[in-house]
Amino acid sequence: MKNSPIKKCLFPAAGYGTRFLPTTKSMPKEMLPVVNKPLIQYGVEEALEAGISGMAVVTGRGKRAIEDHFDVNYELEHQIAGSDKEIYLSEIRLLMQRAVFSYTRQIEMKGLGHAILTGETLIGDEPFAVVLADDLCYHPDAGVLSQMVELYDYYRCSIVAVEEVPRNETHKYGVIAGDEIAPGIIRVNNMVEKPKPEEAPSNLAIIGRYILTPDIFNILRTTPAGRGGELQITDALLTQALQGRVLAYKFKGRRFDCGSVPGFMEAAEFFFKNVYKE
Fold first, then answer.
1. pTM check: above 0.85
2. CA torsion angle for 267, 142, 214, 31 (degrees, to 10)?
3. Which of 116, 166, 221, 225 has the greatest count of CB atoms below 10 A from its CB?
4. Mean pLDDT highest for which of 12-16, 107-111, 233-237?
5. 54-59 and 174-182 as β-strands: parallel, antiparallel, unpaired?
6. CB-based contact 189:109 (threshold 8 Å)
7. pLDDT, tens digit, for every residue of 213-265?
8. Pick from 233, 117, 217: which is nearest to 176 by CA?
9. How far apart are CA 198 and CA 176, in angstroms?
């Protein structure tokens, strides 16, 4: 997509990845490989496909491998120069030429809302996308962010990607309710963070793709801590939603929950069979 109205994508990547311990004791969960590429690289590729070239990464302690991945490894380059192994670096080299990376650290883990607020210094006063790398999305033609950027270009408001989940799983997600204004597009009037099934306003769960307007930062600054004592992006978005400024989008494609072991294994099998090219 050319001339995207969204220029930057924020990657909150400071979490501990406790569901993958002991692997994530010394390895960022965003660097877990699905076949031959780490999760965060798939997210960066999705952002680039949507016309977004500025990658803003919120990291934490023990996450240096993310920065190293999107950098030149001179010793490795020297060792494989001129060999048949060099082709395996062609994809990441091209990605590094097309994208600009910036980093900041989240000192304390206080929720997704806090991670996004920490990224304000990298984003500035402009609309931006957010990708949670452990939600791996796939569509053969247009990625989820490309679909959402096209919507933003028309509606110019915050947008969250949603999908239907079983009622007994609503406690894992932010859940929305609202009025469908076009096929697959819902004007949100209610959002609840991780509700019990009997308290959920619907079974439409927010997944790790957002487009946010820059006023979200000021809203986050005045939003009190929510569920779990953390600053929740769902609570801040509800402030916008009550003003009619949030859409939910039933995206086209498949989403894999790579924050869980079963979802990660499902993604690896799918990508090996359907996407990977040797």
1. yes
2. 30
3. 116
4. 233-237
5. unpaired
6. no
7. 999 999 999 998 878 788 899 999 999 999 999 999 999 999 999 999 999 99
8. 233
9. 14
